[in-house]
Amino acid sequence: MVRVGIVGATGYGGAELIRLLAGHPQVEIANVYSSSADGEGLEKTFPHVSGLGLPKLLPIDADSMSKANDLIFLATPAGVSAGLSPQLVESGVKVIDLSGDFRLEKGDVYKAWYKKEPAPASFVEQAAYGLTEWNQEQVAGASLIANPGCYPTAALLALIPLMKSGWVKPNSWIVDAKSGVSGAGRGVSLGVHYSEINESIHAYKVGSHQHTPEIEQELHKQSGVETIVQFTPHLVPMTRGILVTAYGQLSQEVSQAQIQELYEATYADKPFVRVRPAGSYPHTKEVYGSNYCDIAIHVDQRTGRVVLLSVIDNMMKGAAGQAVQNMNVMFGMPEKTGLPLVPVFP
Ligand SMILES: NC(=O)C1=CN([C@@H]2O[C@H](COP(=O)(O)OP(=O)(O)OC[C@H]3O[C@@H](n4cnc5c(N)ncnc54)[C@H](OP(=O)(O)O)[C@@H]3O)[C@@H](O)[C@H]2O)C=CC1
Ligand SMILES: CC(=O)N[C@@H](CCC(=O)OP(=O)(O)O)C(=O)O
């Protein structure tokens, strides 16, 4: 059994990790940690986990954490992992970080987009970017995983095959994304107040969202081609789910069938990416509560553009689900272990 510890267990990412790990056949939830609720039972925060026999919340202390766990998940705000993970990794415990602290390779880029001090460069260098489908080998050998952001997961799984093909003009990509409100975490603020967001939709952080350099960095790494992406996120009044609609200008005559074939071949052996039949319209509800990313391809011959539609559950493939998928790969377990396959529907 792998002994896991969860930091940030009182947040949304932490709660989703508990849901998955409590049902994982090869994991023991050994410890849960909190920066604010020492000694309390997690059911005080989350009545829905009552009766699972979970340990009480402990204070965060790197020394004792590294002795009591084989793996620590950090589901904490940006900046926390940058300080904590180096100590944990040095003492021999593996770390999967759900925040953005180890995703960006260049410290100055992190500082510019997150407005925080970057993690030590030597640890950023050894972190594997945990987009499992594309980095399985690096994930398997890593001690520190930078779990991808929710929007980058949906965008990258859709864009990478076409970026690698050379069939789309690199700087033409426009990534329009819509997210449910759980993507903003459990903290209360005016921006997620029910009466402010219900029956409304709005864009935010146009040209300045911190996931923009992450998408660009990984497209470059996977395709070898530098790319600038126009990324616009929107907040929609639903709890979970992300829909990415991405537009790229084709660089040559390519048919819908050719692109469809490319995607089907690329993801044929990837259990969590489902390429939908040509011309379909995936709904976020069709992946709700699951670790799937569903992708559909539309070629518009009139405009010469390809339109990619990609849906995920932000809490699952966009956060905790992908983190568990990475844990499975790190510990040599089958990739799908403990990840319930069928989405909750309706
Ligand atoms: N929600 C989502 O869809 C996604 C989230 N992420 C990332 O995952 C991380 C967690 O997100 P999410 O669960 O939504 O956020 P939440 O705000 O719901 O939870 C974060 C938790 O972190 C803990 N925390 C707060 N401050 C500190 C601190 N200084 N030191 C240690 N722990 C602290 C809090 O628990 P306590 O007070 O008990 O310590 C809190 O419950 C974030 O970095 C987020 O960006 C990534 C992808 C998707
Ligand atoms: C809807 C919503 O607010 N989503 C969050 C998701 C970002 C996130 O989780 O940030 P890191 O993964 O980079 O830490 C946002 O746009 O900031």
From TrEMBL:
<dbReference type="InterPro" id="IPR050085">
    <property type="entry name" value="AGPR"/>
</dbReference>
<keyword id="KW-0963">Cytoplasm</keyword>
<keyword id="KW-0055">Arginine biosynthesis</keyword>
<dbReference type="InterPro" id="IPR000706">
    <property type="entry name" value="AGPR_type-1"/>
</dbReference>
<comment type="similarity">
    <text>Belongs to the NAGSA dehydrogenase family. Type 1 subfamily.</text>
</comment>
<dbReference type="GO" id="GO:0070401">
    <property type="term" value="F:NADP+ binding"/>
</dbReference>
<keyword id="KW-0028">Amino-acid biosynthesis</keyword>
<dbReference type="InterPro" id="IPR023013">
    <property type="entry name" value="AGPR_AS"/>
</dbReference>
<feature type="active site">
    <location>
        <position position="150"/>
    </location>
</feature>
<dbReference type="GO" id="GO:0005737">
    <property type="term" value="C:cytoplasm"/>
</dbReference>
<dbReference type="Pfam" id="PF22698">
    <property type="entry name" value="Semialdhyde_dhC_1"/>
</dbReference>
<keyword id="KW-0521">NADP</keyword>
<dbReference type="GO" id="GO:0003942">
    <property type="term" value="F:N-acetyl-gamma-glutamyl-phosphate reductase activity"/>
</dbReference>
<protein>
    <recommendedName>
        <fullName>N-acetyl-gamma-glutamyl-phosphate reductase</fullName>
        <ecNumber>1.2.1.38</ecNumber>
    </recommendedName>
</protein>
<dbReference type="InterPro" id="IPR058924">
    <property type="entry name" value="AGPR_dimerisation_dom"/>
</dbReference>
<keyword id="KW-0560">Oxidoreductase</keyword>
<dbReference type="GO" id="GO:0006526">
    <property type="term" value="P:L-arginine biosynthetic process"/>
</dbReference>
<dbReference type="InterPro" id="IPR000534">
    <property type="entry name" value="Semialdehyde_DH_NAD-bd"/>
</dbReference>
<dbReference type="GO" id="GO:0051287">
    <property type="term" value="F:NAD binding"/>
</dbReference>
<feature type="domain" description="Semialdehyde dehydrogenase NAD-binding">
    <location>
        <begin position="3"/>
        <end position="142"/>
    </location>
</feature>
<comment type="function">
    <text>Catalyzes the NADPH-dependent reduction of N-acetyl-5-glutamyl phosphate to yield N-acetyl-L-glutamate 5-semialdehyde.</text>
</comment>
<dbReference type="Pfam" id="PF01118">
    <property type="entry name" value="Semialdhyde_dh"/>
</dbReference>
<dbReference type="InterPro" id="IPR036291">
    <property type="entry name" value="NAD(P)-bd_dom_sf"/>
</dbReference>
<comment type="pathway">
    <text>Amino-acid biosynthesis; L-arginine biosynthesis; N(2)-acetyl-L-ornithine from L-glutamate: step 3/4.</text>
</comment>
